[in-house]
Design goal:
heterotrimer, A mainly alpha, B mainly alpha, C alpha+beta, A: mainly alpha, C: alpha+beta, Alpha-Beta Plaits, two-stranded antiparallel sheet, 3 helices, 18% helix, elongated
Chain lengths: 119, 324, 132
């Protein structure tokens, strides 16, 4: 435990120290161009005119939030005795849920394809 | 425990290897090695200006010096504190899994019966911090880079977990010491070569090396998630990638290549270091060999062939564990 | 699968072959004696016909008045692309290439230096092969 705390403290301290030392001894000449967003091209003017790709945002949410939460739940189930005792009925319930979802998707698969094509 | 220093094993692990000095030392050596190897493959010299007798080994140190004393620019259009804090957090979090990995018997900071599994999960959990860093930069290039990074993360997570799971099933344990002891007869790479191949490809995907260098594809998104950073924060943002390579190759050396066998103590540490090279060298060479995949091609590989291969690796492990 | 192994084998083989590049400040390449480097003007042969100014594709040559009352060409080195059209167009052969392609000026205002076109100015420092 001592080693872990020492490692964490030393690591963080080294990182922060490098930033602080660098900041203290580096030139400070702020200008408007430096503190602006990076635009590969001319300087920005007017309102933003590019469409933002938001369609992948759901996957970002799934990976960052849902996956972490499900992973932690799995760890909680697998590492406690009460959780392990309930493992078989939990797994059976999960299989039932997945089967239900697959059945629904299968039933409406052709309809979904048509919706996507004609919607 | 025949260590020469008056420090105990876990303190050596915290300070020297695989701790703080190991991470920073690896950063210097890996950047130099990558540039040198790729240059030699391309029939040119590589960095040779800074320390010629050493073959330019101190070039990354010179670059570090230049970057540290460059002006630290914090843009005005985002939260400046978070802008400065996220690369530090990312670098730190990428290095956190080494707490659970052992480099020699006793040289581990936190011995735990499920240590290696925790290390794998930690590696996957911190991948989200790259997205946080890219989001705080508030730039369209970083946004695209973050999207690509998180999609790639989703693609390689399951094969990586399954490959690690295959090895845990085969050894019957996830304790770093017992895993290496279980390889006294045959190394993990020979026991389950499918898992080794999956782990190698997942390592290339995880550290976004060629052919999967999609979030940082320079012709497409200017440096991807690291675009707005300069000076020391750039070292942290870019170096987090190398720290991930360090963690994953250390994990691979312990899981697949027999860790510190056949020695222990200081020699065991050196042997682990040498075995890490088996993972680091192909990752470096791949930069000179492969072109870059498109994002949809890489995702298709991750969710298709790689997933099938990793499932086959788990089945192989179950079969092998059942037979023996 | 076998292609991947072959790729790595080719890469490893190339690591042990000699590099083709030249470590520039210490070693130089020898391009031969007829290398078309920078362009100089021999004042004694120049007849100020202005054919070089007419043919220059980058509009780098401009004529200016010299102390002896005659006009001579001056090259703007920011524009010159060393294509050699002026050398080919010169009827008296006063414009010629020197063998030296590595010259550095310390001043951006390189057009206003007509004296640079003297043949003596474009020789390398003794002991090196270029003016750096």
């Amino acid at each position: 435990m001592v080693a872990v705390v020492l490692f964490i403290a030393l690591f963080l301290a080294a990182l922060v120290l490098l930033v602080v030392v660098g900041y203290l001894f580096s030139p400070k000449r702020p200008s408007e161009t430096k503190e602006r967003r990076f635009e590969a091209g001319g300087p920005p003017y007017g309102p933003v005119q590019r469409r933002l790709l938001m369609q992948y945002f759901g996957y970002v949410y799934l990976v960052t939030v849902v996956e972490a939460a499900v992973g932690l739940a799995l760890v909680a189930v697998l590492t406690t005795d009460a959780g392990r005792a309930a493992l078989a009925p939990l797994a059976a319930a999960l299989v039932v849920v997945i089967a239900a979802v697959v059945a629904v998707v299968w039933r409406y698969f052709k309809l979904l394809a048509d919706v996507r094509r004609w919607g | 425990m025949d260590l020469l220093f008056p420090l105990s094993g876990d303190l050596i692990a915290a300070l020297v290897f695989p701790g703080v000095l190991g991470i920073f030392g690896f950063l210097v050596v890996a950047i130099w090695l990558e540039r040198k190897l790729v240059a030699r493959v391309q029939w040119r010299f590589g960095p040779l200006y800074v320390s010629k007798p050493l073959g330019g080994l101190l070039q990354p140190v010179a670059d570090l010096f230049k970057l540290v004393f460059s002006e630290l620019v914090l843009p005005r259009h985002t939260n400046r504190l978070l802008f400065a804090a996220t690369p530090i957090l990312l670098f730190f979090a990428e290095g956190l899994p080494v707490v659970f990995i052992a480099a020699a018997p006793g040289v581990v900071m936190a011995p735990h019966p499920y240590g290696l599994a925790i290390a794998v999960v930690l590696v996957l959990l911190v991948a989200v911090l790259v997205v946080a860093m890219a989001w705080i930069e508030a730039d369209k290039f970083t946004y695209i880079g973050a999207m690509r990074e998180i999609l790639l993360t989703a693609a390689y997570e399951v094969p990586l977990l399954l490959a690690a799971l295959a090895m845990f099933l085969l050894y019957g344990t996830a304790d770093p010491h017992k895993v290496v002891e279980a390889q006294s007869g045959l190394w993990g790479v020979l026991l389950n070569p499918l898992a080794f191949v999956v782990y190698l490809v997942a390592l290339l995907m995880a550290t976004t090396r060629f052919p999967f260098e999609i979030p940082e594809a320079e012709p497409e998104v200017v440096l991807g998630p690291y675009t707005e950073y300069g000076s020391t924060l750039f070292i942290y943002a870019f170096g987090a990638n190398y720290v991930k390579l360090y963690v994953l190759s250390l994990l691979g050396a312990v899981l697949f290549l027999g860790g510190w066998l056949p020695a222990a103590g200081v020699l065991g540490v050196l042997i682990t270091l040498a075995k890490m090279g088996v993972f680091v060298l192909p990752a470096m060479l791949a930069r000179a060999i492969y072109p870059r995949y498109r994002i949809d091609q890489a995702l298709r590989i991750g969710w298709g062939q790689l997933l099938a291969l990793s499932a086959a690796a788990v089945l192989w492990s179950l079969l092998a564990a059942w037979i023996w | 699968m076998i292609t991947h192994v072959k790729l790595f084998a080719t890469a490893v083989k190339q690591i042990f072959q000699r590099p083709l590049t030249v470590r520039w400040p210490e070693e130089r390449r020898d391009y031969g004696d007829r290398f078309r480097g920078f362009i100089v003007n021999d004042r004694s042969k120049c007849v100020s016909c202005q054919l070089c100014e007419a043919v220059c594709p980058a509009k780098a040559i401009k004529f200016h008045l010299e102390a002896d009352g005659r006009r001579y060409p001056g090259i703007d080195w920011g524009r010159c692309i060393l294509c050699g059209y002026c050398v080919d167009a010169c009827p008296t052969g006063s414009l010629r290439h020197v063998n030296n392609g590595e010259i550095v000026w310390t001043d951006l205002n390189v057009y206003k230096k007509p004296l640079e076109m003297d043949p003596d100015d474009a020789v390398p420092l003794p002991g090196t092969k270029s003016l750096v």
